[in-house]
Amino acid sequence: MLPSLKHIKVQLKVLLLFISGQTGKLMYVMHNSEYPLSCFALFENGPCLIADANFDTLMVKLKGFFQNAKANKIESRGTRYQYCDFLVKVGTVTMGPSARGISVEVEYCPCVIANDCWNLLMEFMQSFMGSHTPGIPSVFGTKHDSIYSPADTMVQYMELFNKIRKQQQVPVAGIR
Amino acid sequence: MAGVPAVRISIESACEKQVQEVGLDGSETYLQPLSMSQNLARLAQRIDFSQGSGSEEDEPGSAGRAWAEAGADQHEEEKFQPSLWPWDSVRNNLRSALTEMCVLYDVLSIVKDKKFMTLDPVVQDPPPAKQNPQFLQLISKKKSLAGAAQILLKGAERLSKSVAENQENKRQRDFNSELLRLRQHWKLRKVGDKILGDLSYRSAGSLFLHHGTFEVIKNTDIDLDKKIPEDYCPLDVQIPSDLEGSAYIKVSIQKQAPDIGDLGTVNLFKRPMPKSKPGTPHWQTKLETAQNVLLCKEIFAQLSREAVQIKSQIPHIVVKNQIISQPFPGLQLSISLCHSSNDKKSQKSASEKQNPEDHLYVLEHNLHQLIRECHKQTLSSTVMPHPASAPFGHKRMRLAGPQAFDKNEISSLQSNEGLLEKIIKQAKHIFLRRRTARTIDSLASRIEDPQIQAHWSNINDVYESSVKVLITSQGYEQICKSIQLQLNIGVEQIRVVHRDGRVITLSHQEQELQDFLLSQMSQHQVHAVQQLAKVMGWHVLSFSNHVGLGPVESIGNASAITVASPNGDYAISVRNGPESGSKVMVQFPRSQCKDLPKGDVLQDNKWNHLRGPFKEVQWNKMEGRNFVYKMELLMAALTPC
After folding, report:
1. Where in or outside the cell is it found (chain A) (predicted)?
2. ipTM score assigned to the predicted complex
3. Which residues of A touch B404 (CB under 8 A)?
C-alpha cells in the first residue's frame, strides 16, 4: 500500500437556486481534487453538469438568480491510497470547524461498467471494512450497463453529505 | 415579299443653290450659279504664273518670279479696288512673258552677229597633270587606311579606359551592393541615420531578453592612393561587446569531485573555430559566431534557471559558469558555458591540458536541438492563433474541465519536463549504456568458456537502447543456444527479457548485471549438457536450474543435470555454479568397481549390472578446449561402440 498523494479533498458548496415562479431548488456545486480543473453542478434528482473551473465566477455573476443556502460548505479531506488497480480514499467529513464523519471511497480503475465489477469491489471492501460494507449504490439502480462517469461519483458524495448534514450534531460515522 | 405593300421612294437632287438671303416672309433668294464663262474666269484667276510645271530653272524662273512679285505688288495696290475684269491678271502675265521673250530674242540675235556682243566662256582651272595611276592609288589607299586606323585607335582607347574603370569599381565594391548582400542573410532596419540589424532568435520564437542588435558601419579608412587589399570590404559590422569571441557548451560526466570547494574553476579551453566556407565574407562569420554565443548563453540561462527552480531529490549546484548535478551516486554531470573572447590574454591561458574524450558532443548537440524545439513551441499552431479568452497551452486543455480529466490525463497533455531534466535523463542513459557495454566487454574478455556475444541495435532512442546478448560455446553454437537475452537499457534501469519469457528488471548497479550474466553463463553449461545428451543419445534423468543441494552460491544458484548412457551402464552427473565452478561425477556399474563392500543383502549376480558409486572426474585434466567439448569426449568415451 503506497500512499501516493496527500491532501485530497472533496468540497461541496450548497447553493439555493431560485427559479422565478417556482419554489427554489437546491443546486450543489462541488469540486473534486481528483479532477482538479473541473467543477460539478448538480441537482437532487436532476442532471449533473461538468464544467470548467471558471464556473464559480459564473455563479458569482448570476447572483440575482440564486442565494447561498445556510450551512453551505461541507468538505471531505484525507489521504489517497493506490493499491495496484484499486484506489482508496479515506477522508474526514467536516462542516465548518466540526468533524461530522468519515468517508471512504473505493474505486476499481480498469473497469468502467459498474455492474461487472461490483462483486469484486464488494470482496475488496469486505477485506478491510468487514461488516460495514455497504450495498450497491443507488446511482446504479437504473443504469446497470452504462459507462461510469465522474458525475456518478459526485452524486454519491452529494447523497453522503446530505445524509451527514441531516444527522444530528452527535457524530455518528456514516460510511457508504 | 409579295404581301408587303409598296413603299414610296422619292428622289431629289442634292445640288441646291446657295441661299443669298432669306426674306421676312420666309422666301429664299438664291444666288445664281456661275455661268460657264464666269466659272472659267474663276479658275483662270487661280493660275499662278510664277510657278511652272516640271523643272523650272534659274533665270527665267527668277525673272518670272520677280515679275510675279512686281505683279503681286500691283495687285496688292489694286486689292483695294474691286477687280475690274477676271482676265486682267492673265493678260498682264502673258504680256510680261511676251516682253521677256522678245528681249531674249533680241539679245540672241545680237550675239549671233558677234559685232556688238559675244559670248565668252569663264576661265577655268587647268586640269592636273596625269600621274602614274598606281602610285596615286597607293597614296590614296594609305591615306584612307590611316584615317580608318585613327578611328579604330580612338575607339580602342575608349574601351580599354572603360574596362580599367570597371575593374577599379569591382575592387572598390560599392557599399550599397555589399549592403544588399548583407540584407539577403540578416534582417536590417534603419533607425535615424544608423543601420541596425537583429541577430537574436526572437523571430524564431525565443523569449530570451537580449537585444541582439548589431550595427552596420561604412568602412572609410581606406587610402585610395595605396593598393586596395584583397579582403577589403566597404562594410563592417559591430556586434555587442558581450557577444564577442566564441562559445560552446561543454557537457561532461566525471567521477564525483571529492572536494566541493574545488568548484568555481572555470574550465574553458579554446576550441578551434570551425573554418568558414571560403566564399563567405568576413561579416557573415562574425555574425554567425556572435549568434552562436547568444544561443549558448540562452541555453545556459535556461538550464540554470531550471536548476534553481525545480526541486529534485539531490539539488543541482550552479556556480559561475557551471551547473553540477548528480545523476547517479558517485557520478557528476557538469554542464558549463565556455566563452572565450578573442583577446591575446586569454589565448595564452588556453594551453591547459584538457581531456577531449570527456566532452559529450552528442549532448551538446542535443541541447541545441532542444532549445530550438522550445523556440518552435512558442510559435506552434497550438499556441497561435487562439481565442482571446483562453489561456496559453495545448488546445486539449480547454476540454479538461468539462470532461473531468484526472491528473494522469492532464500531465500527459502538459509537457512539464524542462531542459535540464531532459538533458540529465539523456546523460543518465548514455552513461548506463556505456557502462553496460563495458561490463559485457570485460566479461567477454575475461571468460573464454562460455563465450558471450553482444549485438547492439542500430536504432536507438535518446532514452532507450537495446542489445541482444548470446551465451554460446565455441563449436556448439547450433546445439546450445538456449540462453539469449534481450537487454533494454533505459534511463535508470535495465530490463532483461529471457528467451524463456522471464522479464527481469535490473537497477543501474554494475554489479547486478555482472552477477546476472555470470549466473546465466553457469546455467548455460548445464543447458548445453542437456542439449548434447539429446544429440548423443543419452537420456536425461534429472535436470534442475536451481538445485538446493551443495554449498550455497553467493551469486545466483547452481544448476545440475544427470544423464545416463544409451545402454544405461554409465551416468554423468554435472553440477555447475557461478562461483563454485563445475563438478562432474560419473557413475559406474557395480561390476566395474573393485572396492565395494560385499554384503549379504545382494545375493544375485544380476544386481551387479546396476550402476554403483560415483567417481569425480578431474575436469581440468580432461582434454578439450571448452566444457562442452570435454563433455562430448566424456560421453563418447563412456559409450561403448
Report:
1. Nucleus
2. 0.75
3. 35, 38, 40, 50, 149-151
